């Protein structure tokens, strides 16, 4: 009887254990509006080390709305173990997803003057990883970001296919992939950012 949280008809378990147990703190979707129609692409669940709360004491007493607009707060989230689970709602080619991720990461790196040859090579590797994939409905993409290492493990699983894994070792690229999903006001899913902010605000007020 594992409890789950439903995100747009997609179930997410309340906890996962990677190295240690992580709890779901935020969830949402990515979507786009075309001619007044909302098209949903993915459902997202964000799992954090519950100890995160001890790192966030300076934001105690802030509302979820305040936190959602505070990029420094989301910067602080980068410091703990995190696991992001992304479930496909509307199928797309992996190459399309890869291009979106690439341009978001590259723009962020360029903005802080950290886009060098090493970053370009690491990002190319990520794009290549997605190139051959097909994101069928209910395919699952996960990102594991250990707090200490500056690396990320990306796993893609689709029904009937063997899991594919990629380890990204470039700390700058890893940071910007995290920020694509968890970058406060610039995150790809405002719903997820808002959900995280509300949950962490509640945790901090306990």
TrEMBL record:
Higher taxonomy: Eukaryota, Viridiplantae, Streptophyta, Embryophyta, Tracheophyta
Organism, scientific name: Olea europaea subsp. europaea
Domain Chalcone isomerase, chain residue ranges per copy: 20-202
UniProt keyword terms in alphabetical order: Isomerase
GO molecular function terms noted in the UniProt entry: intramolecular lyase activity
Pfam families referenced in this protein's UniProt entry, alphabetically: Chalcone
Assigned protein family: Belongs to the chalcone isomerase family.
UniProt protein name: Chalcone-flavonone isomerase family protein
């Amino acid at each position: 009887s594992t409890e789950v949280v439903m995100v747009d008809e997609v179930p997410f378990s309340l906890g996962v254990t990677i190295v240690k147990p992580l709890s779901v703190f935020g969830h949402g979707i990515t979507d786009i509006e075309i001619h007044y129609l909302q098209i949903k692409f993915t459902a997202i669940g964000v799992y954090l080390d519950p100890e995160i709360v001890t790192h966030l004491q300076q934001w105690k007493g802030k509302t979820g709305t305040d936190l959602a607009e505070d990029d420094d707060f989301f910067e602080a989230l980068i410091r703990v173990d995190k696991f992001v689970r992304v479930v496909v709602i509307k199928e797309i080619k992996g190459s399309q997803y890869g291009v979106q991720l690439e341009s978001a990461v590259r723009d962020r790196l360029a903005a802080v003057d950290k886009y060098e040859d090493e970053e370009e090579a690491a990002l190319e590797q990520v794009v290549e990883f997605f190139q051959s994939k097909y994101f069928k409905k209910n395919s699952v993409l996960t990102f594991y970001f250990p707090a200490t290492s500056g690396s990320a493990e990306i796993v893609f699983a689709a029904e009937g296919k063997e899991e594919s894994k990629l380890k990204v070792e470039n700390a700058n690229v890893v940071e910007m992939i995290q920020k694509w999903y968890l970058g406060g006001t610039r995150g790809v899913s405002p719903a997820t950012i808002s959900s995280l902010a509300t949950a962490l605000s509640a945790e901090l007020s306990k």
